[in-house]
Amino acid sequence: MQDVDFVNGLLDFITKSPTPFHAVSTMAEILNANGYTYLNEKDQWDLQGKQPAGGRYYVTRNDSSIIAFQINQPLLDKGIMMVGAHTDSPCLKVKPNPEIINNNYLQLGVEVYGGALLNPWFDRDLSLAGRISYLNVDGVIEHQLIDLEKAIAIIPSLAIHLDREANSKREINKQKHLPPVLMKFPEGDVDAKLNFKSVLLKIVNANLEQTDVNKVKAQKILDYELSFYDVQQPAVIGLHDDFISSARLDNLLSCYTGLRALLDNDGEKNTLLVCNDHEEVGSASAVGAQGPFLKSVLERLCESDEGVSRMIANSMMISADNAHGVHPNYADKHDGNHGPLLNSGPVIKINANQRYASNSEISAVFMHLCELADVPVQSFVVRSDMACGSTIGPIMASEIGVKTVDVGVPTFAMHSIRELAGRWDAYYLYRVLKQFFK
């Protein structure tokens, strides 16, 4: 795959994936088109690869986490080469009873998901996407993904004339200042009884009419998981097209890169990609990296506890999650000897206190993979006087005992509504992961 094709595919994937639900749905669609077979966790699995005759499969949980794998060799002796990433990004999620009518304006109450950088959310054109659960007219609970696509809301900034210290001391109160504005009621025509679920009911039934006229209509919205997102399209920018500017680069970039490396691999290794939800809030859930999803899948690939242990001992994981590139305006926020540069290659993330899972043994393997793929490589260590973040790497390593290295593409503005990465770094990471799978 050439760089231009890869980058265009990445931008298209991000556009189609405003929420973890949409990311998993898009990945499943791509996997289906490439000969992968869907497995339901409720069913008994009859995997050809155990013999091994080869097999390509994927399984999802909660529609927001996904595991795809290809079995080509005996698992106990050969192990499985794994890449891990996460599907979620910081965002604003709609509350269960969100309706706010203030001075004739309709707003929706929101809750901040993850460690979002909040200032950039102001003055952006926002749409709404996520999953809706409803009761149809036959009394059956069903679920539907929605993406309104068009801009329906905005969080306006307060004018500097009303806050003269806005550029130095403005504070954001998550309860008072973040509810987006959706509409203005005509004077004297405020609908105090407006119900958000009734709006969603119309959207669901309109979608059903467009996609399947024979589908049973919805009669009642039961619950939803919806979040706002910026409608601005991802783009390649820069004087020489050096950068990718987009929402949710952390960590859809790694999800797509891992997926493409899995699909384009022509080697004989056993390979697996796991993309978990809930990393941004600690990973402690049934679908998060600290949950049992990956472990349960690996156990089903082997027939005994000893078999799982042998397989894990012969396996390795690359945890791919974005790294902090050294910002030219804030270079003093980095250790002078460990400031990753954009478009200078993927980054090995290292921390003596195990906030990252990398150690010298596994880092050496990744460095050698970079050499084989003709890709530059960098290292990141946080300043000794600053706290270090973390990712799914240490969690996966401790949960299943697999040798793990934490890597990522250097990024600016991580956790902003719009992040920046090097367009060559994304392609570099793809080449290394493909080499790893090969």
Which descriptors would you attach to this protein?
nine-stranded mixed β-sheet; six-stranded antiparallel β-sheet; 438 residues
Please, could you describe this protein's structure?
With 438 residues, this protein is of the alpha/beta class. The chain folds into two domains: 3-89 and 247-437, 3-Layer(aba) Sandwich (Aminopeptidase); 91-230, Aminopeptidase i, Domain 2. The chain has eleven helices and 20 strands. A nine-stranded mixed sheet has the order 1-2-3-13-4-14-18-16-17, sandwiched between helices. A hairpin with a 4-residue loop joins strand 7 and strand 8 (141-147). It starts with a helix and ends with a helix.
Characterize this entry briefly.
The protein has 438 residues and is an alpha/beta fold. Helix content is 28%, strand content 27%.
Which shape, going by the Cα principal axes? globular
Give the radius of gyration: 23 Å
Q: CATH architecture of the largest domain, please? A: 3-Layer(aba) Sandwich
Low-confidence stretches: 49-53
Q: How can the largest sheet be summarized?
A: 9 strands, mixed
- Regarding CATH, which class of the largest domain? Alpha Beta
Kindly state the mean pLDDT as a whole number?
Answer: 93
Secondary structure tally: strands: 20
Q: Structural class of the secondary structure composition?
A: alpha/beta
Q: Helix segment count?
A: 11
> Whole-Å distance between the termini?
15 Å
Give the strand line-up of the largest sheet. Answer: 1-2-3-13-4-14-18-16-17
Structurally, how many domains make up the residues?
2
Oligomeric form of this entry? single chain
The H-level CATH homologous superfamily of the largest domain, spelled out, is Zn peptidases
Helix proportion range: 25-40%
- The proportion of strand residues reads 25-35%
The name CATH uses for the topology of the largest domain is Aminopeptidase
